[in-house]
Amino acid sequence: xxxxxxxxxxxxxxxxxxxxxxxxxxxxxxxxxxxxxxxxxxxxxxxxxxxxxxxxxxxxxxxxxxxxxxxxxxxxxxxxxxxxxxxxxxxxxxxxxxxxxxxxxxxxxxxxxxxxxxxxxxxxxxxxxxxxxxxxxxxxxxxxxxxxxxxxxxxxxxxxxxxxxxxxxxxxxxxxxxxxxxxxxxxxxxxxxxxxxxxxxxxxxxxxxxxxxxxxxxxxxxxxxxxxxxxxxxxxxxxxxxxxxxxxxxxxxxxxxxxxxxxxxxxxxxxxxxxxxxxxxxxxxxxxxxxxxxxxxxxxxxxxxxxxxxxx
Amino acid sequence: xxxxxxxxxxxxxxxxxxxxxxxxxxxxxxxxxxxxxxxxxxxxxxxxxxxxxxxxxxxxxxxxxxxxxxxxxxxxxxxxxxxxxxxxxxxxxxxxxxxxxxxxxxxxxxxxxxxxxxxxxxxxxxxxxxxxxxxxxxxxxxxxxxxxxxxxxxxxxxxxxxxxxxxxxxxxxxxxxxxxxxxxxxxxxxxxxxxxxxxxxxxxxxxxxxxxxxxxxxxxxxxxxxxxxxxxxxxxxxxxxxxxxxxxxxxxxxxx
Lengths: 312, 256
Hints:
- The complex is a heterodimer.
- Chain A folds into two domains: 2-220, 3-Layer(aba) Sandwich (Rossmann fold); 224-290, Alpha-Beta Plaits, CATH 3.30.70.100.
- Chain A is 33% helix and 29% strand.
- Chain A is built from eleven helices and 14 strands.
- The longest helix of chain A has 14 residues, at 165-178.
- Chain B is mainly α.
- Chain B has one domain (3-21, 79-254).
- The chains are: A alpha/beta, B mainly alpha.
- The interface between A and B is medium-sized, with 28 and 27 residues.
């Protein structure tokens, strides 16, 4: 559905993105993850056929973003970071105008309008001026604008930025509801957001893709050891030694009553650890596997930490 | 609906929900009304003087003594108010980031530029139509010829169109409406002064070029009732060229 190959964009001598390649099948949801200024918006604007790339190619459903902008634009619904709202219009007036410039047939427009108002739960504010709506409603009008012509591809630039937690949950739910039939690309600099809505994550930093995979594999790939956290009620001074004595344990770090046990990759020592704790009557309170979060992955990939060079 | 039609409708709507169009039209109509009144009062004073001197009621040419000065002054007022009418068109879209919506929609930049121009021209033509109240009101009481008045209105419409396209260009260059208005003013006044410069360098090739570039001479012909192809070509080509420049400016901003 979307093929991006060796995309590069220079603004003067400044490189916005360099050699970005990825592809997306129909119905997939991909999150673009990266700090601010990493090149997420630039990539998205190229995909919307509104910004020409310096080199490389971007194809949407077989149409080239540079040579066939009109076809591409018809297939895409785009929500920029700042929703492009005419605040002196009412919701209905605004969406009617958007429907017209998106090329919806006049006789189909009322139906499309009703559907999108319904879907975005905007029906009760349809007659209100956009200027008087809350931030959350404005964002929904922005999403409605991207959806009114029922595009197969949605490109959402930081769709939850500036919203309160409740509105963020609502918008994420809306995006999840939209997935399935539609191919969605969204950008974010918030890690849990990528996890919450997307199966696949592309991490971009300084205009380059530093990792691209499913979220589980990304963390698995970067995990060189398993970590188990063990919380005890009564820790005796010899806990550390006894734990280290277990086969497969690499190191033990103590934080109060919690022991962080690092073990060899592929060995789940939870059972052994539990047995030792019970046998010694340490008062086992908690025993859990510590998975590497996307946050760890992200920081490791973008902050040039040690070990980064060893990663593929 | 065609994309141009959608943009024209949107722009017309936004003219009439904001006070700008009303204020501009009111000021323009108030001033042209006052101008017409002054011109008529001056003409009637003059004819009274002539009556006293000659002893008989003279045949005063209203086209010459009333309408021509009114049209010239109207042109000056347009120079001042037209950029106000256009300053918003691109500057605001860029400031509010709504340009992003237009350029990611399946409409061309030509559609956008033409749509905005047609909307501004429609508002302007409406304003002009309302100013025609002066000759219409005068018609039952005085003798004058309509054709030169109609050609003068054609001249005003064409010159206004040229001013609107210059205003649109000014607006495309910035996201600040004040800057847009100043740029348009500057450009219009510069071309206005070309007419004077043309007289200074009269007889030389430079003088000819400058006179040709200024809208004044071309407008003057139409006010006199002379419709020549070269003057019509000047205005239409000027409008098309300025809109083309606007198109290039908007297109080039896409690359940055």
